[in-house]
């Protein structure tokens, strides 16, 4: 699974909502890829299972940086539905739930306020 994520997380998709139109870099999809890698890292760390954990940590960090750089609109203080979009997405409210950012992070607070 991690090999698949490593090779495909940069791909565009149609999102959780199966949005019609061109495939895009949907923020929710990228965050879910991050969550998958994060859980694999925690599994190795907490349960001593084998795996290239250093490589996975690097992958997790790259996905996180990519989302925070390309999926966040600093002018509006919110994550957007997809990279370069002004649209919002209620699925982005899961960002703190999966541990991508803490609940008190200003970007999370801004996203919650924007979606409301």
Description:
- The protein is mainly alpha-helical.
- The protein has one domain (1-115).
- 48% of the residues lie in helices and 3% in strands.
- It contains four helices and two strands; from the N terminus they run H-H-H-E-E-H.
- It has a two-stranded antiparallel ribbon with strand order 1-2.
- Strand 1 (72-73) and strand 2 (78-79) form a beta hairpin.
- Helix 2 packs antiparallel against helix 3.
- It is globular, with a radius of gyration of 14 Å.
- The mean pLDDT is 97.
Number of strands: 2
As a whole number of angstroms, the C-alpha radius of gyration is: 14 Å
Q: What is the end-to-end distance?
A: 35 Å
Strands of the widest sheet, in order across it, are 1-2
The major beta sheet can be summarized as: 2 strands, antiparallel
Coarse morphology: globular
Order of helices and strands: HHHEEH
Structure annotation, total helices: 4
Strand content: under 5%
Q: Write down the domain tally.
A: 1
Mean pLDDT score: 97
| Helical content band | 40-55%
Q: What class do helices, strands and sheet pairing give?
A: mainly alpha
Please outline the helices and strands:
Blueprint: H1 2-8, H2 27-47, H3 53-70, E1 72-73, E2 78-79, H4 106-115
Antiparallel strand pairs: 1-2
Helix pairs in contact: 2-3
Quick structural summary:
The chain is mainly α and 116 residues long. It has helices at residues 2-8, 27-47, 53-70, 106-115; strands at 72-73, 78-79. It has one domain (1-115).
């Amino acid at each position: 699974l991690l090999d698949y994520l490593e090779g495909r997380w940069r791909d565009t998709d149609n999102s959780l909502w199966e949005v019609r139109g061109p495939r895009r870099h949907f923020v929710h999809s990228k965050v879910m890829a991050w969550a998958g890698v994060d859980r694999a890292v925690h599994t190795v760390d907490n349960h001593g299972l084998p795996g290239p954990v250093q490589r996975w940590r690097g992958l997790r960090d790259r996905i996180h940086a990519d989302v925070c750089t390309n999926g966040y609109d600093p002018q509006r203080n919110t994550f957007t539905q997809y990279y370069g979009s002004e649209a919002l997405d209620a699925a982005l409210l899961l960002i703190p739930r999966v541990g991508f950012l803490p609940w008190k992070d200003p970007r999370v607070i801004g996203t919650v306020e924007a979606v409301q």
